[in-house]
Specification:
The protein has 15 helices and 13 strands. By secondary structure, it is of the alpha/beta class. It has 2 domains: 9-227, NAD(P)-binding Rossmann-like Domain (Rossmann fold, 3-Layer(aba) Sandwich), CATH 3.40.50.720; 240-459, NAD(P)-binding Rossmann-like Domain (Rossmann fold), CATH 3.40.50. An 8-stranded mixed β-sheet has the order 3-2-1-4-5-6-7-8, with helices on both faces. A 5-stranded parallel β-sheet has the order 10-9-11-12-13, covered by helices on one side. Helix 3 (45-54) links the parallel strand 1 and strand 2 (59-62). It starts with 8 loop residues before the first helix and ends with a strand.
Length: 460
């Protein structure tokens, strides 16, 4: 299952000098008797908990949302990556859930999978991590392994979590062990799952590293060790900055090539035929999701501590955040040209409010900013999303809360002055949409990808 020789010759040679509590936990991990606690049963925690339980690890999930616990008890998954069948195969057997943090007192391994959002000033908000740390400290027992999976800046595990946990009176590296293994979930990706995505693992010291590698080798197919918790945290930040910067680059190129009358998708597809030195990234209406729009700013914040600029990261963020306004601007041009009404008198349909295709996840979705920008300009706006029946409570977009998706029949209506494709769900009938003759502003190139007529399509 794992690809590591966890109990190395060096470890064998040094056993006398290693904490006895760590060696006891290692034996439990080898025999699959170590009890695992997962704090936060969301997009990261629930797939991890079910995967670990499926592979024979006894798991208890800590989830403060009572509605989620009720659904789990009924065998109903609220996460696309976990099927009802997979949940029902383990729930009540190797997996249970509770809202009571006291259950952590019986756990040998505790994995933190809580949100790490940005504040209103785009600074790191570690309140969920800190709260989880305080709960763990209250119930921490000697010999436990604590792993932070939440994405954050390098140093969080050692500088923030360890001091909180040591308020328990126990000492890191002797009485308990710390590791970082940032999540790599990709909602909607059918090619990879929790068990098949290689797991980056960094420990705070040799014993912690060995324990964390041993734990994850019993959950996932491949474990990739790095030298420290800081290195593990930096790996995840680097992955998402790489994507954010490259998406920002192609989004900027899109605006330039649009002005030149060139098709950015044609240009990228042409460049992608080069068998070396080029990796295709594709533009869109902005960035969404729980990682790429947020994680890069964790590094920019930390870099300021060292009086260092992060020019590429910040510039990419500016470009990506400007794309919803660009979509609205392009739509204004189309409506002025085709109807002469002006945007303030227009009725517009936005297709897709999820941040990516084929998921219901709306975190940081650029479509929400597009809706707000249209309404700020005076337009009347509807949305259709086969995955999102209504817009739930959202602190950043309170005026959109409760808005309902129009029925599927709306995509064949001719009452709209323009239709914006913000999210290219597979379930949308693009052929019927293209036949309406209504101007289409396609931010995902989905009409061309489906070989449909482009007479009324503007790529944006």
């Amino acid at each position: 299952m794992g690809t590591l020789n966890i109990k190395s010759d060096a470890l064998d040679a040094n056993e006398a000098a290693l904490p006895a509590l760590g060696l006891e936990l290692l034996e439990k991990l080898e025999s699959k008797t170590a009890r695992v606690g997962v704090i936060g049963l969301g997009y990261v925690g629930l797939p991890l908990a079910v995967t670990a339980a499926t592979r024979g690890n006894p798991v208890v999930g800590i989830e403060i949302n009572s509605n989620k616990n009720s659904l789990l008890e009924q065998g109903s998954s609220y996460i696309d990556a976990v099927s009802n069948d997979a949940l029902q195969a383990v729930y009540g057997q190797t997996f249970t859930s509770t809202s009571n943090f006291a259950a952590l007192a019986e756990c040998d391994v505790i994995v933190i999978c809580v949100p790490t959002p940005l504040s209103s000033h785009r600074d790191p908000d570690l309140s969920y991590v800190e709260s989880a740390g305080r709960e763990i400290a209250t119930h921490l027992t000697p010999g436990a392994l604590i792993v932070l999976e939440s994405t954050t800046y390098p140093g969080t595990t050692q500088d923030i979590l360890v001091p909180i946990l040591e308020t328990s009176g126990l000492k890191a590296g002797e009485d308990f062990f710390m590791a970082s293994s940032p999540e790599r979930e990709d909602p909607g990706n059918k090619s990879f799952s929790t068990s098949t995505i290689p797991k980056i693992v960094g420990g705070d010291g040799e014993m912690a590293a060995v324990l964390a590698q041993k734990f994850y080798s019993g959950v996932v197919d491949r474990v990739v060790p790095v030298s420290s918790t800081r290195a593990a945290e930096a790996v995840k930040i680097t992955e998402n900055i790489f994507r954010a910067v490259n998406i920002g680059l192609v989004n900027e190129l899109k605006t330039i090539y649009d002005a030149m009358g060139l098709d950015i998708w044609e240009i990228i597809d042409g460049a992608a035929t080069k068998p070396f030195g080029f990796m295709p990234f594709y533009p869109g209406p902005g960035l969404g999701g729980h990682c790429i729009p947020i994680d890069p700013f964790y590094l920019t914040w930390k870099a300021r501590e060292h009086d260092l600029p992060t020019k590429f990261v910040e510039l990419a963020g500016e470009v990506n955040q400007s794309m919803p306004r660009y979509v609205v601007s392009r739509t204004r041009e189309v409506i002025d040209r085709t109807t002469g009404k002006g945007l303030s008198a227009a009725k517009i349909l936005v297709i897709g409010v999820a941040y990516k295709k084929n998921v219901a996840d709306m975190r940081e979705s650029p479509a929400l900013r597009i809706l707000e920008n249209f309404e700020a300009a005076g337009a009347t706006v509807d949305f259709y999303d086969p995955m999102v029946p209504f817009i739930p409570k959202n602190d950043e977009h309170p005026t959109l809360e409760g808005r309902k998706s129009v029925p599927e029949s709306a995509i064949t209506s001719t009452e709209y002055e323009a239709v914006i494709i913000a999210t290219d769900h597979d379930k949308v009938d693009y052929a019927s949409l293209s036949q309406t003759g209504v101007p289409i502003i396609d931010t995902r190139n989905v009409i061309a990808r489906n070989d449909l007529p482009l007479d009324n399509v503007t790529k944006a």
